[in-house]
Write a structure and sequence with these properties.
It contains 17 helices and three strands. It has helices at about 35-45, 45-55, 60-75, 80-85, 95-110, 120-145, 155-165, 175-190, 195-205, 210-225, 230-245, 250-255, 280-290, 300-315, 320, 330-340, 345-370, and strands at about 20-25, 30, 35. The chain has a three-stranded antiparallel beta sheet with strand order 1-2-3. It is globular. The site of carboxymethyl coenzyme *A has 21 residues, from loops.
Length: about 400
């Protein structure tokens, strides 16, 4: 039946070729379409980065304006989609809602969705990028029992999201400009990360010619896990446990090192980065900027303090050094979200919203490739050899 390699967890298998994102894990380098992440975080906007990821080049002024207008034209959702929210219990995890409602988009946009048609693929991307903030903010409003707020196209992408999260119909909403800026940069940092678990899932499900909204819902499902996007939520729970316990940090580091103990330092380690995650460096800086505005006795400051001390203790330990375990993007991002009053269970939703452009750009790249085939991994069968059926009376 031919020769194939055994590679659980795809540690050494390139599943595709791609022109989108470059990662050098040994040297902590991340680039989108050749542009270093540090430069994009400093100079670009999330929507400009979306354009870059999808189309391959930075837009000129007219192209960016047209793109932003197009996004604004698509930022509402079908009114019938609102009734989906009512089907969820109010204590439903917002990621469960995201998965369901994103998947439901496939029921609304199955017409004019020929995956071999470039314009159709482009429209799927515009719809997703435009609607994700609305869908995400509404998953929070549903849990809170607050009225849904419609998108305001006069606001920037990130400001509009904060408005739909925190606005109230009776009072004009004014977003904190440093929160808007920080959110936009966080969105850029999370926009793509080549063939991670959720992106590979989107590619694999899309490889069967599935509807792209359904494929992206599969990506949302995969991102939810604490080993992937769910880590940002898990980090804050861990830091809170550390603070509440009153125990020294060394106790937690010792537990993380104990092979008998399932406890891990959340927000530490990465499959590809064997150096400091370049995104974590930037997130750490923003964290300081945001927390500077808070009063000295803010619990968020205590959280950042604990995180920094934990990093110090872990990085001075041989276990972490020898395994190249450094803080990843999720280690500090949660502290920023907390300072913005984003509730804990929304953190992974924020990640999903930002990563949608990566998922759909990678899906589009796969669909553009005429040679692409359905993804079909093989296995190493370790089960029983052939045997005869035994009648139930004889078992
Ligand atoms: N705390 C303690 N030990 C760890 C950790 C950690 N966070 N991460 C890895 N190790 C150890 C692990 O026990 C193993 O040790 P040994 O060689 O003695 O068995 C060694 O380091 C290699 O770990 P691995 O699990 O084989 O590595 P992996 O590449 O399969 O897993 C990871 C990568 C990110 C899932 C893992 O580092 C982890 O679980 N980290 C915590 C969760 C987390 O922060 N995830 C977010 C990733 S970045 C955001 C994203 O892309 O979604």
């Amino acid at each position: 039946t031919g020769f194939f390699t055994f590679d659980p967890g795809y540690v050494s298998t390139a599943s595709c070729s791609s022109n989108i994102t470059y990662m050098d894990g040994e040297n902590g380098i991340l680039e989108y379409r050749g542009y270093p992440i540090e430069q994009l975080a400093k100079h670009s906007s999330y929507l400009e980065t979306c354009y870059l990821l999808f189309y391959g080049e930075l837009p000129d002024t007219k192209q960016l304006e047209d793109f932003e207008t197009n996004i604004n034209n698509h930022n509402m959702v079908h009114e019938a989609l609102k009734s989906f929210y009512n089907g969820f219990r109010r204590d439903a995890h917002p990621m469960a809602i995201m998965m369901g409602v994103t998947g439901a988009l496939s029921a609304f946009y199955h017409y004019n969705m020929d995956i071999h048609n470039k314009a159709h693929r482009e429209r799927a991307m515009l719809r997703l990028i435009a609607k994700m903030p609305t869908i995400a903010a509404w998953s929070f409003r549903h849990a809170k029992g607050l009225p849904f707020i419609y998108p305001d196209s006069s606001l920037s992408y990130s400001e509009n999201f904060l408005y739909m999260m925190f606005g109230v119909p009776t009072t004009p909403y004014v977003a904190n400009p440093s929160h808007v800026k920080a959110l936009d940069v966080l969105m850029i940092l999370h926009a793509d990360h080549e063939q991670n678990a959720s992106t590979s899932t989107v590619r694999l499900s899309g490889s069967s010619d599935a509807n792209p909204f359904a494929a992206v819902a599969a990506g949302v499902a995969t991102l939810w896990g604490p080993a992937h996007g769910g880590a940002n939520e898990a980090v804050i729970r861990m830091l809170q446990d550390i603070i509440d316990s009153g125990k020294p940090l060394e106790d937690f580091v010792a537990r993380a090192k104990d092979p008998e103990d399932k406890f891990r330092l959340m927000g530490f380690g990465h499959r590809v980065y064997k150096a400091y995650d370049p995104r974590a460096r930037i997130v750490h800086e923003i964290c300081h900027d945001i927390l500077r505005e808070l009063p000295e006795d803010s619990p968020h400051k205590a959280m950042l303090d604990t995180a920094m001390k934990l990093e110090e203790v872990a990085l001075s330990d041989d276990y972490f050094k020898s395994r190249n375990l450094y803080p990843n993007v999720d280690f500090y991002s949660g502290v920023i979200f907390l300072a913005m009053d984003i509730p804990l269970n929304m953190f992974t939703v924020m990640f999903a919203m930002a990563r949608t452009i990566g998922w759909i750009s990678q899906w589009n790249e796969m669909r553009e490739d005429e040679q692409s085939r359905i993804g079909r991994p093989r296995q190493l069968y370790m089960g029983e050899a052939t045997r005869d059926y035994v009648d139930i009376s004889k078992r």
